[in-house]
């Protein structure tokens, strides 16, 4: 059979080719006879699902998206403040290194206060107000503390008790040993833990001259801080090693790119062999069915949170099945060859180099965005990266979450957004516009704020570059998995006990 002979035709004559712009026509013309009405309905369903996600992102308060939000923010801010205290004990050179890579302490305190003020507006829990007051006191915002003292004194309990604690810790009047002992006993009964308890208890002990208690509190704080410092150093060393190795790979590639196809590891062709208009129809139909299945599956699995991991592969199966049947098979391509998922012989080492280059570029981009965003006071909202299952989940729940983030999400998102969406756009545009459009849609689908959007957008660009350069989705999949794993490890290192 000739390589360009049409297949899957419903008659004895070849079906007319579906036109495309910007790329040669498919070698094997194929017309599935898609109904325009069903394609239009699929587009409406898909757009409606995207609109619902967007509306929830704007209408639902961000603090309502985290279970037990008061406990979550208290735990997170306490750990961040402990880490901040620990960084001050490091050698000057190491403090400078952390400052250059992680940002300033002043910004961390200001963010913490802003986030607590946001929560205080939504939560009826009075201890949210006390946590906020302690943050303001430690930041030296005396006027805010005085305003709270004057206002809380006229309210019902527990606010008058909070007034006595704040006056003892941050007020001007002298504090006797007997009063301090009574207040410390009362403070120990309150649901304050970690950094928040240590700071207020230390302030009261300092003003009453209770050195034994100060030494006890300091020893407990030092134990917490040392654990966080060890984890932070290990994580920073891992990221720095990945950046350096990736940069070395990029330098080597720039030096030798005229003499060798260093990163070519797969057989996928870009632009793809299938027609762009046909690919768009497959995307709309498969995406609409996947959106409906996601809603139905998550609703049905509401009582079994561990089953949500199946929502990602199951909701993507219709799209992948349509892609194989209508895009790959008519062009005599297997799933593995069409997306470059089978590594060519002897190219395993090049795959590793490509992954290092992609991961390094992603980390460098994150660092650059962080340094630009800091003076502009642009930050990702804490609810975008806090995950209760990673922080407090049981080992089985943690394993399910890691499988979802590190295995299923990278594989299926790369197939959908790079293999299909980027492929559709690549039929019409050159690499740059196709990569930017697909990366923008990829970022929008995550529903993050500005900084989160830019971060995901940059990652999408890197993975599209990897697909174009290597002829395989595998470098992007592995880089995507490593990126998600680093995010999970950062959350676990900081917050998981």
Short description:
The chain is mainly α and 497 residues long. It has two domains: 50-61 and 233-495, no CATH class; 68-209, no CATH class. The protein is built from 19 helices and no strands.
**What shape does the CA trace take?**
elongated
* Total helical elements: 19
Distance between the termini: 63 Å
- Taken together, the total number of domains comes to 2
Uncertain runs are: 1-21
- Biggest sheet details: none
Q: Structural class of the helix and strand makeup?
A: mainly alpha
Entry keywords:
497 residues; mainly alpha; 19 helices; disordered N terminus
What does this structure look like?
- The structure is a single chain.
- The chain has 497 residues and is an all-alpha fold.
- The protein folds into two domains: 50-61 and 233-495, no CATH class; 68-209, no CATH class.
- The chain contains 19 helices and no strands.
- Helix 10 (211-256) crosses helix 14 (348-373).
- The chain is elongated, with a radius of gyration of 28 Å.
- The N and C termini lie far apart (63 Å).
- Mean pLDDT is 86; it is low at 1-21.
